[in-house]
Design goal:
The protein is of the alpha+beta class. It contains 5 helices and 9 strands; from the N terminus they run αβββαββαβαβαββ.
Amino acid sequence: MHNRLVSFWGEWLAKKPVDQSQPPKLNLQSKKLERMLKTTRNSLATEKFVLTRLENQKDFCCTNFFDCGDEDLNEFFQKDAYNHRLELLTQTFYLQDKATRNYLLLPVAFISFLNDNIRIPENHKTGKLKDFWKHLKDSVPEPKLHYLSYPAVKIARLGVKKDLQGMNIGTYLLNMVKELFLTDNRTGCRFITVDAYNRAEVIKFYEKNGFMFLWEKDKAKESRIMYFDLKFFNLK
């Protein structure tokens, strides 16, 4: 995959810009995720999409032309993501639609991850995490409830190409991510967390995809911590 990506960008930069006036049509009528087909350790595929990790500086060239409509997200993927990888802070993956690979060989979405955990304070039964504690009590066996923290992976950034938004790509990507961390759960990962922008459309997106608020103390802040319990993801 890496060789194909490098070869593509060498050819792409030598040609005239691709006409993007008419975005490619994606067949995403069904939100159901097909059974994942594993290709390599850092590349996953379904019938519609390929999710691949960016490995080196040449790979990260594909972020230069990415626009998701959010300046903060664009700046991270275009300028910061590679340095974050060098410093072992995040890993960034790009999503490519198989149906459009011969028409527009540009990523349709990017997502970056970092390690995280959800810590359980002493006053968990009555404090700010009481709702999360109730969730744990209902879903975790009693002997495991004494843990002081639970392992998680955090979505550091997620962006979908601006002219392809509203086509269920974000939902499809999240379903791939959920299956990724269930089928390749090498070190233990119970939750996916995200500091979601506290905007109605962003909160609605994550709630639609099964994420819940960790607590209410950040209700008036610019971002809210949300989590998804991987034990509740259906792998059918």
